[in-house]
Amino acid sequence: MSRYTKRAVLALIGVLAVAACSNNGAVPSARSGGPSGASQYQPGSNATPADNTSILKKLKKDVVIGSTVDPGNGDMGPHSISIVQSSYGRLKQGQLVVCNFADSSGNAGKGTTIEVLNPKPGSKPSTLGQSSDIEGCDGAATTQRGNVCAAGFTSGLVACFDSSGSELQSYGSPIVEPFDVADAHCVVGQKGFCGYSAEYIFASDAKTGGIVNWSINQYGNPHETQVISGFAVNKKSGWSALGPSGLSYTSKIDELYIADGVNNTVVGITHAGNLLVPNEVVVLKGGKKFRCKYNGKGDPCGQLIFSGSPLNAPEAMTVLPNGNLIVANTAGGNTLVEINVSTGKVLATKVIDKSKSQGIFALQATGSKDSNTALYYTDINDNSLHELEQ
Fold first, then answer.
1. Which of 259, 71, 100, 92 is nearest to 182 (CA)?
2. Domain segments of the chain: what residues?
3. Distances (CA, A) of 65 to 72, 232, 316, 317, 358
4. Topology of the domain comprising 3-42+73-311
5. Residue 345 backbone dihedrals phi, psi, to 5 degrees
6. Cis bond before residue 174 (omega within 30° of 0)
7. pLDDT tens, 2-46?
């Protein structure tokens, strides 16, 4: 049975919609490796034009947006940032959604709240949702339809909430310890509003080293499927846990980026919108090589974006408007590392918290071009949301 026959069985009409929109863009068309081979892709195989402008060097002003401590139960320890894509109900476009990992006493893995802040200094957090289904909340992603899906490291679930904060549905197995989540929609080839396309949530797992996805609008794969496996995990708990994290999706080239804090690598998964069957991409030991199930045009595969120093236990990551990445060495000195995706070169580094305690667990870029790019980050050492501005 061919890959696309399997897709039709798994996802019916939605698969054809995703495949059609994902194969029309400027994405890599030739990938080696195939079903039985292992491949190690080098930076530069990606189709994004090289932009050697360092945004990080321009970000010299650090502004505190506000506290992330929940006004109701005192949850703290911000572990993610997501920007609201469109105005729905209580959520307004541009607002910032943050997940709390710890409770009011600072106990890691006990936080159960999602906060919303306005993107301006002096903002006060408001509780969007609270649930034991997201205990140990360490990831949140807003969808184009105004929902928020949050990961519960301790609960073992990912739960989605509507814009009023009401819980809609929770997702479990094959997820064991959800570590981060990312929303993927409007993939390559689509123009304008893409309300009839598949929209996926990707979730990483700190227990299994897998990446699970599912469709949240039933136009794609409606079931939780571990589509990527093999990422390294350190099997530690609380703030010390390391596994695949920093999930960052770019619709411009339909690529999902993942930080591997154990192997100190950044990996890109090409044609991520086409990931639908179990273990389509397997990360081999060491985190630098990949075994890919299929080898046709538009089929997903892995590529090594960067490896080694100055990466040091990276956990948070974001895609800049120009296509490059900023990665945070969370457990390795709270240092930001800016990487040119096309060349694999480090453009700049910047320490943003000089304390000895790990603090930077979330990054999110905003802007449309180099000149107006800014960077949001959370710091658990002061339980605040910050913005680095030019």
1. 259
2. 3-42+73-311
3. 19, 34, 19, 19, 20
4. Neuraminidase (2.120.10)
5. -95, 145
6. yes
7. 454 444 433 333 333 333 333 333 333 233 333 333 444 444 444
